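Structure, all two chains, one model.
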Amino acid sequence: AQSVSQHNHHVILSEAASLELGCNYSYGGTVNLFWYVQYPGQHLQLLLKYFSGDPLVKGIKGFEAEFIKSKFSFNLRKPSVQWSDTAEYFCALDNTDKLIFGTGTRLQVFP
Amino acid sequence: NAGVTQTPKFQVLKTGQSMTLQCAQDMNHEYMSWYRQDPGMGLRLIHYSVGAGITDQGEVPNGYNVSRSTTEDFPLRLLSAAPSQTSVYFCASSLDRHGYTFGSGTRLTVV
């Protein structure tokens, strides 16, 4: 069965620091991969997605992610975080009609 | 175009009571899903649907029923509420699985 793992449960950074959140998935076939963000008290919003083609995908708000098939990974990056990036981040995998989420990473950014 | 609308936003139930969480979308999306979000566990799939008349179970279906009589609506029924069902519930929809739109959530407390 497919699954998604996010090993960083809680990340604390200062503004302007670089960010990398890990995401690994378990599935041997073709997958669609997503990163969603949930700001405090809000619903999930799509940051970026990968289906095929260029393994480096760019999303909104300066985020990007790199799909590495050999490592079954889809890590999220941002060169310089802002206080407004404080949120929970979810990696997700879509296969056979359903979207499966990781457990999420809570990011806190301090000024 | 209202997106995905969930009602109610908050609900308190007594153990053993039943209720229906409503989810409606006006985007003509075929794919709809229900998730529950619990601290440290991410979003777990309860039930999903790939079109009117078609539903299937997700990771945590026990205690919940769904039906999809129209493309627009995908209600989630709690048959006999239990404290373990205290959670935040999100409904999501997608046209083609290239991105899901989420509702604003229902916060349910079972006492």
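The mean pLDDT of chain B is 95.
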